[in-house]
Amino acid sequence: MKALKHKILEEGNVLSESVLKVDSFLNHQIDPVLMQQIGQEFAQRFKDAGITKVLTLESSGIAPSVMTALELGVKTVFARKRKSLTLIDGLYSAEVYSFTKKESNEISVSEQYISKEDNVLVIDDFLANGQAALGLTDIVEQSGATLVGIGIVIEKGFQTGRALLEERGIRVESLAIIDSLADGKVTFKEEL
Ligand code: 5GP
């Protein structure tokens, strides 16, 4: 997706050979115009899949998921990372090891919001080693719903996430695939 790749080149900060910081439009401040375009692009790619729900993980997945769900005319649910006082019983839960925080979190979704009749699209901001996506996949499996695919805003193609998901037969659609972050520079897999 051209507009996204331009934004990454203009505003992304390469923190190391494996971490890209995009706080100015995705992970802290949010650019709603770009998010709308991202939602339109995911909706276009999955338009024939009969999606009934979009599932993501708080907090950075919420903006692209809301815009995608709006385009598809369905609701979005975000898995919570912290135990909530009001979210106790009737939960689907999974353990997720965080690439950026180097710690494990239990993520959970109320059974009320995903059921076995749902066709679920999972959305996340980044794909690195696939742990967040696998945790969300696990939650979809527990609910008995059908996983239609996974939409990723920024994939780091040099990490293992895609292989892990594809070997499970999961469709992965990424809007920007980064080939390398070497020498402080972002290189994409395909041309702009
Ligand atoms: P994974 O679970 O695929 O290993 O990592 C994906 C999760 O880690 C995403 O939800 C995202 O929050 C975070 N993440 C992984 N790599 C990066 C990165 O390079 N930059 C940022 N900002 N977040 C990342």
Automatic annotation (TrEMBL):
<feature type="binding site">
    <location>
        <position position="27"/>
    </location>
    <ligand>
        <name>xanthine</name>
    </ligand>
</feature>
<comment type="function">
    <text>Converts the preformed base xanthine, a product of nucleic acid breakdown, to xanthosine 5'-monophosphate (XMP), so it can be reused for RNA or DNA synthesis.</text>
</comment>
<dbReference type="InterPro" id="IPR029057">
    <property type="entry name" value="PRTase-like"/>
</dbReference>
<dbReference type="InterPro" id="IPR010079">
    <property type="entry name" value="Xanthine_PRibTrfase"/>
</dbReference>
<protein>
    <recommendedName>
        <fullName>Xanthine phosphoribosyltransferase</fullName>
        <ecNumber>2.4.2.22</ecNumber>
    </recommendedName>
</protein>
<keyword id="KW-0963">Cytoplasm</keyword>
<dbReference type="InterPro" id="IPR050118">
    <property type="entry name" value="Pur/Pyrimidine_PRTase"/>
</dbReference>
<keyword id="KW-0808">Transferase</keyword>
<keyword id="KW-0328">Glycosyltransferase</keyword>
<comment type="pathway">
    <text>Purine metabolism; XMP biosynthesis via salvage pathway; XMP from xanthine: step 1/1.</text>
</comment>
<dbReference type="GO" id="GO:0016757">
    <property type="term" value="F:glycosyltransferase activity"/>
</dbReference>
<feature type="binding site">
    <location>
        <position position="20"/>
    </location>
    <ligand>
        <name>xanthine</name>
    </ligand>
</feature>
<feature type="binding site">
    <location>
        <begin position="128"/>
        <end position="132"/>
    </location>
    <ligand>
        <name>5-phospho-alpha-D-ribose 1-diphosphate</name>
    </ligand>
</feature>
<dbReference type="InterPro" id="IPR000836">
    <property type="entry name" value="PRTase_dom"/>
</dbReference>
<keyword id="KW-0660">Purine salvage</keyword>
<comment type="similarity">
    <text>Belongs to the purine/pyrimidine phosphoribosyltransferase family. Xpt subfamily.</text>
</comment>
<comment type="subunit">
    <text>Homodimer.</text>
</comment>
<feature type="binding site">
    <location>
        <position position="156"/>
    </location>
    <ligand>
        <name>xanthine</name>
    </ligand>
</feature>
